[in-house]
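Much of our argument rests on the idea that a fold can be written as discrete symbols. Part of our work consisted of pairing the sequence of a single chain with a tokenised description of its backbone. We regard such an encoding as a compact summary of how the chain folds. The amino acid sequence and the backbone structure tokens for this protein are reproduced below.
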Amino acid sequence: MSKFFKDVGGDLTNLEEKVLGPKYDYAKNIKTPGEIGMSSRGSISAAAKNVAGLIDYTEVLVTGGGRASRSGGAMGNKFFLQTGAKCNDINGSGEQTRSIYINNVPQGNIPFISSSTGANFSEFKGLIPGTLSTMGQLNPMKIFQAFMMKGTPDCQALTMQTVDSNNYKSSETKFVALMDIKNLDPCTFSNKRNPITNKGCRETFSSYNTMHTPNEGELTSDISKLPNDPIVQLYIASLGIVGIYIMYNLIQRG
């Protein structure tokens, strides 16, 4: 542990990356209005492109991905963070350096709502739901416990997807404590199942973005799939209001 803090001592930039992980520039991963065809010209075609651009930005904010996203999907990075502490491999390879897995890509896990419905919202992986999800999961004590915990907790090798600041996807294998793996969202794993709890990934709203014109029967069916929970409905409405407010301010600054 002392070697870990000695390695980062005197270098604040290195300390920040060692403790908090690599930075991810969200602004850099959102295209400018000009890049998606928006302009200040007064023609009808320009107005149509501007409306389409607003929809693209709303998609980034609410559902994630779309034309305005450079990554083409939900934004954020995934990485292993070395703690400097040790853990005991349950498969017999002795003491290993303990890491924790950080996933900053929204999973559609909305605080309070996901816990009450027992499912993630597959279509709500934009910046606003992602921020709410991060705030709901933010617990600095878990990170500091990983750095400062005494003893050697049981751990196992864990292979997970990693995403860097340039959205390059790869995979790494590190040793992660069983208690930390237990707390990971099942939707984070490649097989959509937590290996410790054996809980599977549950998602809803999977057909929210179906791009076709429904007939009356389909429309009735789709509406019936939406939850009747007023909290969920209030959340969806609030997302729309926040998105409109942000878009209005962007237009005013332009």
Q: What stands out?
A: The chain is about 40% helix and 15% strand.
